[in-house]
Write a structure and sequence with these properties.
42% of the residues lie in helices and 20% in strands. It is an alpha/beta fold. The protein has two domains: 5-226, Spore Coat Polysaccharide Biosynthesis Protein SpsA, Chain A (Alpha-Beta Complex), CATH 3.90.550.10; 229-290. It starts with a strand and ends in a 6-residue tail after the last helix.
C-alpha cells in the first residue's frame, strides 16, 4: 500500500517512552511521515530525535521552544501533515503490527470520518496479552453517558458509531485541520480531546471505534511528563475549570447525546468527587512519608 498516513506525536519529557514506541510507528508500511512536536522537553528528547533523523527520513521534528500546551502542539503537527490521513498519537502509545492497515480498511468501509482502535492502558509490568486479558473482563458500556467519559479498553463486537471515542484518532487530514484543537483549554488541558470530538460531530462528522485494531498506552507511575507536569490540587482545580468550560461550550450536544442533567449540579458533584479523591491521595502519601522505615 502507498504510504498515506501522517502520524502526529506531541511530546514533553517522556524520552524513555518515546524511544520505546517510535519503532512501532515506523514499522507500519502505511506511515508516510511521523511528525514529532517537542513541547518544552528538558530530558534530552531533542538530541535523541536529531540523531534518529539521520537514519529515519520519515521523521519530521518540530520544536516549540518553550512549553505551549497540548492543543497548540497538536494543531502545529496537524497543520504540518502532508498525507491524506492523519493519526493523532501520543508519546507513550504503542501500536500493534498491522494497526494502520486494519484501521484504514475499516475507516474507508464505514460511514465514519474519524476512527479509533481499541485503546488499552497497560502497566509497565504487564505483557500485552496480560493487559488484554485484564480489560477483557470489563463489563461496563464503552461510553458512560452520565459522566461523559469513555472506557477505551472495552471490547466491542464490531465497528460502532459513538459520540465519544479513544483519544488516538485516525481521519482525513482535512478534518483535523478544519476542526482543530481548542487552545483555550489551559494548564492540564483536560477535555481537549473530547472537545475536538464533539466539535467534529457538531460540524457534521461521524466518529466510530474499531475493535479490530489495538494500541496500548502505558500507565506511568509518578508521571511528570506531558499534561501530568501539573500535579496535586492545582491539577484538580484545572480539571474542574476545563470541564466547566467544556460543558458550557457543548451544552446542546451533551443534552442530546448524554444523561448529565443540570450541568450546574453535575459540575458541583464532579468537583466534590475530584477534590475528595485528591484529599484522600494527599492523606495517603503524607502517611507514607511519616511512617518510620523498616529494616530486617
Amino acid at each position: 500500500m502507498t504510504p498515506c498516513v501522517s502520524v502526529v506525536i506531541p511530546t514533553k519529557d517522556r524520552l524513555r517512552y518515546l524511544q520505546q514506541v517510535l519503532p512501532t510507528f515506523f514499522s507500519q508500511p502505511e506511515v508516510r511521515e511521523v511528525v514529532v512536536v517537542v513541547d518544552g522537553s528538558t530530558d534530552g528528547t531533542q538530541a535523541f530525535l536529531a540523531d534518529l533523523a539521520h537514519d529515519e527520513p520519515r521523521l519530521v521534528v518540530l520544536d516549540n521552544g518553550p512549553n505551549r500546551g497540548i492543543p497548540f502542539t497538536k494543531n502545529r503537527g496537524v497543520n504540518a501533515a502532508t498525507s491524506a490521513y492523519t493519526f493523532v498519537a501520543e508519546d507513550d502509545l504503542e501500536l500493534t503490527p498491522g494497526f494502520f492497515a486494519t484501521l484504514l480498511a475499516h475507516l474507508e468501509a464505514s460511514e465514519a470520518d474519524v476512527m479509533c482502535g481499541r485503546n488499552i492502558f497497560r502497566y509497565d509490568r504487564e505483557t500485552a496479552d496480560e493487559a488484554i486479558a485484564r480489560v477483557d473482563q470489563l463489563t461496563v458500556p464503552m461510553v458512560d453517558r452520565r459522566l461523559v467519559e469513555v472506557e477505551t479498553g472495552v471490547r466491542l463486537a464490531d465497528d460502532t458509531v459513538l459520540p465519544i471515542i479513544a483519544a488516538p484518532m485516525l481521519g482525513r487530514t482535512e478534518v483535523f485541520q478544519k476542526v482543530g484543537f481548542d487552545e483555550q483549554y489551559k494548564v492540564n488541558f483536560w477535555r481537549e480531546e473530547t472537545d475536538f470530538q464533539f466539535s467534529a460531530q457538531e460540524a457534521g462528522y461521524v466518529l466510530a471505534s474499531c475493535p479490530h485494531a489495538t494500541c496500548f498506552n502505558f500507565i506511568i507511575e509518578h508521571d511528570r511528563g506531558g499534561v501530568h507536569a501539573t500535579i496535586g490540587f492545582t491539577r484538580t482545580k484545572w480539571v474542574i475549570k476545563n470541564n466547566w468550560r467544556f460543558l458550557n461550550k457543548h451544552h446542546a450536544f451533551i443534552a442530546q447525546h448524554f444523561d448529565v442533567g443540570n450541568r450546574h449540579l453535575y459540575i458541583v458533584r464532579f468537583a466534590i468527587s475530584k477534590f475528595a479523591t485528591q484529599l484522600f491521595n494527599y492523606a495517603v502519601s503524607t502517611k507514607k512519608r511519616l511512617l518510620p522505615g523498616r529494616t530486617g
